[in-house]
Amino acid sequence: MSTKSFYFLVICLILLSLIVSAENPGDIRLQGFVNDYAQVLSSQEETVISNTLKPFYDSGRAQFAVVTVNSLDGRDIESFALEVAQGKLGEEDENNGLLLLIAVQDRKYRFEVGRSLEPYLNDAKIGRIGRQILVPAFQGEDYAGGIQAAVLEVAKELDVEITSTPIPLKRANNSGLLRLLFPFIFFIIIFVSAFRSRSIHGKRKGNDFFFAALLAASMMRGGRGGLGGAGFGGFGGGGFGGGGASGGW
User: Fold this and answer.
1) Which residue from 22, 146, 157, 191 lies 20 to 30 Å from 106 (Cα-Cα)?
2) For 13-26, what is each residue's pLDDT tens digit?
3) Are 33 and 227 in contact, with CB atoms under 8 Å apart?
4) Rounded to two decimals, what is the model's pTM?
5) How do beta strands 63-69 and 108-114 pair?
6) How many angstroms separate the CA atoms of 208 and 80, rounded?
7) Angstrom distance (rounded) from CA 65 to CA 85
8) Cα–Cα distance measured from residue 33 to residue 226, given in angstroms and rounded to the nearest whole number
9) Domains of the chain, with CATH numbers?
């Protein structure tokens, strides 16, 4: 195998692993109100949802975070969500954390409810929100619209006032997919350019391909994570007792 072919194969495997790999719940950092590890939301959608989640935080009523991942890697979503939330979300003395976890490839979701919120968001209430709002939206791949509508419904249950009317989120926004595919497109352009240059000017160093592919991989990895949003001051470390509801679509 030539050096060029070897580099190309290695980097393709790296890029593929960045898309299909499961997230380790212990490695997930809640960097903001929205943590889109699955890259299914556009920047505008993240901003709108973050601004809708901010009043929960500002009022002290709840620390509500949304996390999307690609896959649970065979784990049950209940234990996965609990590990993400426990000790990371909610005020320590209030236990008012609330997590919405979405596993896109597994087509599953989970609301994890902090202990102090369970009387207001019991399993029946939060389960209804999932079935009536998340399921139909996610079946149509409208992740942003489903999340936004669910957050607004939770706000009603917790008497959290959303002071500014959020911008309605519309489906048929493919920016999340384009953002996911951009590193591949970038790498292909660099690869073709380097190959053509080699054909014209003679032998080129194999490192050209290696560094181009590494840059593409770095761009994809750098895009994973979340959006803090204006006014985000970090979450606490409240407790969870397993309350909540799970479902699939």
Assistant:
1) 157
2) 555 555 544 568 87
3) yes
4) 0.73
5) unpaired
6) 40
7) 9
8) 8
9) 34-170 (3.10.310.50)
